[in-house]
Amino acid sequence: MSYRSFSEFVAALDQAGELRRIVEPVATELEITAIADREMKSPGGGKALLFEQPTIAGKTSRFPLAINTMGSKRRMAIALKVNDVEDLAQEMQLILKAKPPTNLRQGWELLKQGVNLLHARPKHVSGGACKDVVQILREGESAGLTLADLPVLQCWPKDGGRFVTLPNVHTRDPDTGERNVGMYRMQVYDDRSTGMHWQVHKVGARHGKRYYERGERMPVAVTLGGDPAYTFAATAPLPDGLDEILFAGFCRKKSVELVKCETIDLEVPADVDFVLEGYVQPGELRAEGPFGDHTGYYTPVDDYPVFHLTAITHRKDAIYPATIVGIPPMEDFYMGTASVRVFLPVFRMNFPEIVDLALPAEGVFHNLVFVSIRKQYPWQAYKIMHGLWGMGQMMFSKYIVVVDEDCDVHNTSDVLFRLCANTDPQRDSTFIKSPCDSLDHAPTLPNIGTHMGFDATRKLPGEGYHRGWPELVKMDAETLKRIERLFGS
Length: 489
Ligand SMILES: Cc1cc2nc3c(=O)[nH]c(=O)nc-3n(C[C@H](O)[C@H](O)[C@H](O)COP(=O)(O)O)c2cc1C
What we know:
Blueprint (H helix, E strand, L loop, with lengths): L5 H10 L3 E9 L3 H10 L7 E9 L2 E2 L4 E3 L5 H7 L5 H14 L5 H17 L2 E3 L7 E4 L26 E2 L3 E5 L6 E5 L2 E5 L2 E3 L7 H12 L3 E7 L3 H8 L8 H9 L4 E4 L6 E3 L4 E15 L2 E2 L5 E2 L2 E13 L5 E3 L8 H20 L3 E5 L9 E6 L6 H10 L9 E6 L7 H11 L6 E7 L12 E8 L21 H11 L2
Helix pairs in contact: 4-9, 5-8, 7-8
Bound molecules: flavin mononucleotide.
């Protein structure tokens, strides 16, 4: 169920007719983005692209570059080696059903145990393909391989430089030793240093803060490629403390093999394509950005920690994985949607009335959430909104629209119809104060602002509505059957 390498995954995409090879030289400066953007915006997410000769400032890179590898429902399923991402969701459901938890905390605990039991515990190995080539970088000494040799993209014309866009950033809590893997973009400053864009609400930033408080240098390892389950796990909104390496093991039905880094005290999956080893120095900040972001706008320059490289190791057959973000839909929409599908059982566990949930592409993850419920009692929609705002990264949801169970949340037009038809704007909306996504440029101050919820469900007498809720206009089943008999479906 797992891939032994990123190139094996790329070959699987090729075999499934999901890959387009570009053999001509194409510039990492803007040109790859222009091609990938067109592809990502074609129906269903287009194809994955393998650039066999990406160029860096006119010179052909020694590494090929793959992009949009997870940018469709089908490719996401191929990445996780399932027929449909729903299969994974069902496994989650089974873990939770084995011994139904009575609250959310217990639920996560159970999930941790379940995931752990399901062949997910990592194994420790002494070597691996990620060390086919090892380049240690010593201060003052020149090196045959640095960041300048990787085909890192300058994505958009007004970006502050080149950005590593699919990095899995491994850190450790200095107090508990707990591991975390998150995806935080890295702006390349020079051939041995980058920005480290962990936003204030993310686990990497929390780990960083503890190192700064202790005055200790923070070891950080960045991996690129390997089994796509690693990348999926790094982006998944797991609660702080649920180990992404365990989760990746659960997704791929095989323990992740971990190998020690060469220059820092961290372990990384042994079969990844590249490992960037290094450290973040407490207190050191540097201007990062601008960057053409998920929001569809450039996020402005802000101060972020600096990552200093101490070694690069890589596979012989390494492929550099990349993505781009920008005006939706982009590849990340499919990754985010897969996360929502996999974690829907967890939401349902706490809120059994939830029927379905969708984050439409237009909302670029957090801006818009549609949720359908089996409504039973007055103001239940508000319970759901507040519940979701209280669950991990769902706190960033700027607008939540709650609809009845017979509305398809994956059909934006259906949801907008219900929103317009079923709401009295003042009566059926609520505002809350909340932490905001750091990328959101709309709030007056960064990281804090308001969110809005809409109750677009039918109203009950207990909600002060006594006019008798009308019925939806629908054709009766008998007529439909007759028409189908006469004219086909
Ligand atoms: C393509 C892509 C790029 C991302 N870039 C960043 C980033 O630069 N900074 C950040 O804090 N989160 C970024 N995220 C979101 C985080 O990866 C996501 O919130 C993840 O759950 C964070 O992990 P953590 O909770 O372990 O910190 C990105 C997600 C994707 C899919």
